Amino acid sequence: MYLIREVVIELWLPISRWYRYILVFGGTAVPFGHSSSDELNVLSLRTLRWNIIKCGGTKPPKQYGHAMLRHRDVLYVVGGTTGFAYNMDVFALPLRKAPLAWHKLESSEAGNGRYRHEIAVYKNQLYVFGGGQAETVFRLDELPVYDLQQHRWLLVATSPDLTYGYPFPRRCHGFALHNNFAYVCGGIDNVQVLNDIWQFQSGFLIIFGGVTDLEGRQRTNRVVGLWLTPSPLRLYCCHKMVEYFPGLRYLPAPLLMELKLPKFFTDWLLGDYGGEYAVTRLLSN
What we know:
The protein is mainly beta. The chain has helices at about 5-10, 235-245, 255-260, 265-270; strands at about 15-20, 20-25, 40-45, 50-55, 55, 65-70, 75-80, 85-95, 100-105, 120, 125-130, 130-135, 135, 140-145, 150-155, 175-180, 180-190, 195-200, 205-210, 220-225, 280-285. It is built from 4 helices and 21 strands. A hairpin with a 4-residue loop joins strand 7 and strand 8.
């Protein structure tokens, strides 16, 4: 195994998974914003080797704190900061078209630029959750939404939880998707470190690491898990299979097919299993 030097030094690295690859774009080292990257780094989960992928087109700027996801074999990067300026630009990288080339998507006025936000795709629209600037955090009672077909921004109002109302504004939060649900976990709001989980109208939520104090001095490497719904039996069986036969996760697709395992299991191993605006609070301080 070898490591690319640029990956080792970068501290803020938005990450996405595409089949058996981990995609890392951009990021920064300390001091933040003074050594940012605009490279696309790819880790093969089969060989555990990193590679820098050369891409043409209109690349996102050298930045960090942006949100990133892969949807239908297209990698999207939204927002971020150079350390001095914030944006809400949307960039797309089709992963199956050669040569690889970035595209900056046209849009109407996107409103406030931000960083350390999260995004999700629902019905061909990109939903932006939270985020902020150096002294600002953005609310969750209205979500900026980018329409991938009409190439325009709009605001979508959310409905409050009947008991707790709306989530506090926040940035640096954890985020997970399951089916048509989005989950926002913790974060900071410039006053306090938040310790709550909200569901945006299932699955197992995993949170690794994070910052446990407002000043950003205390960090943790703990892994915390929570079942959001009862575990489906076939998914439980998948976890047990790799627990007893860990080598299965490293087999190439042709060998997995020769084993004649259930399709759901092979899809799950290969990372090909994925699957209205009500807000529900699940866990609080």
